[in-house]
Amino acid sequence: MSAELEIKFYFAYTSPFTYLAMGPAYSLEQSHRVSLRFVPYGVNIRRVYGGEVEARDERNRRKLRYLYLDARRAAAERGLVIRPPRKIYSARFAFYGGMCAEDQGLFRPYSDRVFERFWKRELEVESTDALASILDEVGADTAQFRSYLADENAEAKPRLKACFAEAEHDYIFGVPTFVVQGELFWGYDRVDWVVRKLDAMGLRR
Fold this sequence. Notes:
Order of helices and strands: EHEHHHHHHHEEH
Strand order of the largest sheet: 2-1-3-4
Number of domains: 3
Distance between the termini: 10 Å
C-alpha cells in the first residue's frame, strides 16, 4: 500500500466557512489514503470587508449579511449553529491553543469545541483562560500554552508567522483552502472536487 498523501488545510477559527469544511475535511482521511495537516491562516477581515463593523459601507454590509445567510443555511442542513459575531475577533490565542493541542494529538477535540462554542457565541475566543479551559477539558497539558502566553515572541509568534509565510508561498488568499499536490481548492463547497482529484489519483481506501 502506498504512503498517505499529505493534504494541507488552511483554516481559521473565526471563519464560518472553515467551520463548515471541518467535518468533510476529517472524512477525507477515512475515505482516502491521505493525512491532513492543519495550517493556521489569518485573514484581514477589516481590509476585505471595509473596516470595523460600524464603519462599513452599505455594500459591504449587504455582502456580509448574505455570506452569513449562506453559512447559516448550510449549517442548518447539518445541525450546526452559526450566529454572526458582534465584532471582529482575533484568533491568535486560539491558534496558539490549537498548536499546543496538535502537539499532543488533540487537535480535533480542541478545535471542534472552539468552533462550536465560538459560533454559538458561547466562547470568548480572545480569552486565554477560556481557551486554557478547553485544552484542560480535552486532556491536554496546558503548560505549553501558558508558556506561549508568557513570552509570545520566544516560540508562539515565530511558529504562527512561519505558517503565514507558508501560506504566502502556497498563494493562499482565504480560508478554508485545501492544497493537494500544489493545487488549491478554496471554499467549504470544493470538497467534492478534492474527492474527485483523489479518486483520479487512485487514493480511495
